[in-house]
Specification:
CATH superfamily: ATP-grasp fold, B domain
Distance between the termini: 38 Å
Structural class: alpha+beta
Shape: globular
CATH architecture: 2-Layer Sandwich
Order of helices and strands: EEEHHEHHEEEHEH
């Protein structure tokens, strides 16, 4: 989630998530079978084996950890220690890359929940596929029926409750803007006030280098590598 409060961006990582699976076994020799390589629900629901191996073709982090412990214990892979931190690192990098462009008008109070899609390779390296605005929030499966409402509740606690506090302030202390309530599953991974100065310096030096190369090229001088 990205929030823009008082014209300052903050980025948050949601600690929970889920894994989509395919209805057929992975096979690089069969690239035309969409049920092998595309895990989108709209596609997998058409497969005869949809939901046969995993309920609604989805696994929680805990389910995936139990699978690894049972069938690949020798690899000693810990989902929360080895996979989730890769997600957090990639998401942090995307926030840092677009922080000066994603909200150019710097609205006074705004927020957006983003959906990140990753691909996990057989060596457990994670690759970012895409980032979606307005991600799917359907709760058709039991797993999503747990995760999505918790996500929305956590989002409102951070983005809306500090601005529109509960009416009974004798039992509900008003939160400061962007203060994290207790028992929250979001973690702060980007703060423009903290990260901004360093990023401005990096981008300034980068564009100065590009301008120098462009000038040398226009003067007929071979640009340095």
């Amino acid at each position: 989630m990205l929030t823009s409060v008082n014209k300052k961006l903050k980025g948050y990582f949601y600690e929970d998530g889920y894994i989509r699976t395919s209805s057929r076994e992975f096979d690089l020799d069969n690239l035309n079978d969409k049920f092998i390589h595309l895990t989108n629900d709209a596609i997998q629901k058409q497969a005869e084996d949809f939901g046969k191996f995993e309920n609604f073709n989805k696994l929680s982090y805990g389910d995936f950890q139990r699978y690894l412990n049972q069938y690949h214990a020798d690899l000693e892979v810990d989902v929360l220690k080895h996979i989730v931190p890769q997600m957090k690192k990639l998401i942090t990098d995307t926030f840092r890359a677009v922080c000066f462009k994603i909200d150019p008008k710097r609205l006074l109070n705004s927020f957006e929940v983003l959906g990140y899609d990753f691909m996990l390779e057989d060596n457990f390296k994670l690759s970012l596929i895409e980032v979606n605005t307005n991600p799917c929030l359907e709760t058709e499966s039991p797993l999503l029926a747990r995760i999505i409402p918790e996500l929305i509740d956590n989002t409102f606690k951070i983005a809306l409750d500090p601005i529109f506090p509960p009416p009974d302030l004798t039992t509900h202390r008003k939160l400061a803007v962007n203060e994290l309530p207790q028992e929250i599953k979001y973690s702060l991974i980007f703060d423009e006030e903290v990260d901004g100065p360093e990023l401005k310096d990096i981008f300034t030096r980068y564009y100065e280098k590009l301008d120098k190369r462009s000038t040398l090229k226009s003067d007929g001088v071979k640009s340095p590598q």
